[in-house]
Write a structure and sequence with these properties.
Layout lengths: L4 H25 L9 E7 L12 E8 L3 H31 L7 H17 L4 H62 L5 H18 L2 E5 L4 E6 L2 E5 L2 E2 L1 E7 L2 E9 L2 E4 L5 H36 L13 E2 L5 H4 L1 E2 L1 H5 L17 H11 L9 H41 L3 H35 L6
Antiparallel strand pairs: 1-2, 3-4, 4-5, 5-6, 7-8, 8-9, 10-11
Helix pairs in contact: 1-11, 2-4, 2-5, 2-6, 2-10, 3-4, 3-9, 3-10, 4-5, 4-6, 5-6, 6-9, 6-10
Length: 461
């Protein structure tokens, strides 16, 4: 082995130490960068093919990005479930506010006041003030149900807007991931660093999975990725597919567009988009249906009793009027009753201004004293609130479990990919010592050569 080979070994050590310090410095600089994955230089000895020579130095063969695809996959799946529960949790909290139980502005309070007004009228059927009170309490009850219905409809509209915004974001992310796939492929083909590009792609993949519950498949050792939702591809290496959304009577349709004008309805989606869909099509719709059914029962049963009575003025008729379909929006106290409370049918026989038997029958039905086996209106409302609370508790429990699980997985991911300043500084010091040692090797080799040239072979001079 030539004496000059020591210089080559020292040079390789110097270059390797510098390269590894560059990688460590890059880690330190990005310690607070969101989505950054720690990198490390992979070293290997330079093999010497000559006999009786141990080696020829060291070199950096790769800069490896520290990432665990299994942890990433599990974390994305659980983050998608957490996002779905978060949406449903927010919606349930809003619906509980809409229900306003318990409070002075609740359905229960309004029903109690409505019953009290009918009971007072049954005691004094000729009282103008009692009749006016019944009319006003009826209008208040209608207004409260309409207000709740309006708030539920507003929530549905907000959810639809959120679903559309979510779909637009999904389509944008898919296009950007395709662009990064191409950039990463070109960088790897040119043997250029691609770790930072992969980090950018992983950030987008994390968001896309959180929005849709998508599954990510790595192709050719991370060169490209394939992203699917329930088997439907959103990203397939260098091609992206779009989603559409349509709101039908049957519910929300999330459509996978295979070509312009051609689509397939995705049976189910996860993540935030699935949470929005579940909230709109199930949670909000079921609550509205229950509220409307209760209101329909109140209107129909009171009308059935009221039309069998007799008023002080006018002819018998209904207390409430509706279009027969959408009770929450069309129901109102009959206009003739609003104009003249004397048209309220309180008597069971015509011509008796003191008879309040019909008013008492209505009061008994509201209170549940009519002998019927059906539950009272307050009992029906309590059952609705009970179911709402049970669903809310289930969603809260699910969100709590997912929050803990995601936190643990995130800690696991950080332990693998996160940058520890203390560890990096220790690594930097170690690499600095290696650099200094390599420099000392070259210095000693230089002194050896100087000795050979300047001090050897001087005998006989």
């Amino acid at each position: 082995m030539s004496t000059f080979s020591i210089f080559e070994i020292g040079r390789s050590a110097l270059m390797t130490a510098k390269r590894t310090m560059d990688v460590t410095s890059h880690n330190v600089a990005n310690a607070s960068t969101i989505g950054y994955s720690r990198q490390e230089a992979v070293l290997e000895p330079i093999i010497q093919r000559q006999a009786a020579v141990s080696g020829a130095g060291v070199r950096v063969i790769d800069v490896r990005r520290l990432r665990d695809q299994f942890v990433d996959s599990v974390l994305r799946a659980e983050s998608a479930k957490k996002a779905a529960f978060q949406v449903q949790k927010d919606v349930m909290e809003y619906l509980q506010v809409v229900a306003s139980e318990p409070s002075d502005a609740s359905i229960r309070t309004s029903l109690d006041l409505f019953w009290s007004a009918w009971h007072d009228l049954s005691v004094d059927a000729s009282s103008a003030s009692a009749r006016a009170q019944v009319m006003e309490r009826g209008r208040s009850l209608v207004d409260l149900f309409k207000h709740i219905g309006g708030q539920i409809d507003a929530m549905s509209v907000d959810l639809e807007a959120s679903i559309e915004a979510c779909v637009r974001r999904v389509n944008l992310l898919s296009e950007r991931i395709v662009s990064l796939n191409l950039e990463i492929s070109r960088a790897l083909a040119r043997r250029e660093p691609a770790s930072d590009l992969m980090d950018q792609r992983d950030i987008l993949l994390d968001e896309l999975a959180e929005l849709t519950g998508a599954t990510v498949t790595h192709i050719a050792e991370g060169e490209s990725v394939r992203v699917t939702v329930n088997g439907f591809p959103l990203v397939d290496k260098d091609h992206s597919y779009k989603l559409e959304v349509a709101f039908t009577l049957g519910g929300t349709e999330v459509r996978w567009v295979s070509a312009p004008g051609e689509y397939t309805v995705i049976p189910s989606v996860g993540g935030k988009l699935g949470g929005y869909k579940e909230a709109r099509d199930v949670l909000v719709r079921d609550f509205k249906t229950e509220v409307e059914n209760l209101f329909r029962t109140i209107v129909d049963e009171i009308n059935a009793i009221h039309r069998n009575g007799f008023p002080l003025t006018g002819t018998p008729g209904d207390f409430f009027v509706t279009d027969g379909a959408d009770y929450l929006h069309s129901a109102q106290v009959a206009p003739w009753i609003v104009a003249d409370p004397g048209t309220i049918c309180a008597a069971g026989v015509p011509g008796d201004p003191l008879d309040g038997s019909i008013a008492l029958a209505i009061a008994d039905r509201i209170e549940g004293d009519d002998g019927a086996s059906s539950p009272t209106y307050n009992d029906m409302w309590s059952a609705i609130i009970g179911r709402l609370g049970a669903v809310g508790q289930k969603v809260d429990s699910g969100f709590g479990v997912q929050e803990i699980l995601v936190k643990e997985l995130q800690n696991r991911k950080d332990s693998i990919s996160g940058v520890s300043i203390d560890e990096e500084v220790a690594t930097l010091v170690r690499q600095q010592h290696a650099f200094n040692a390599a420099s000392r090797v070259i210095t000693i080799a230089d002194e050896m050569i100087d000795t050979i040239i300047s001090r050897m072979g001087i005998a006989g001079r």
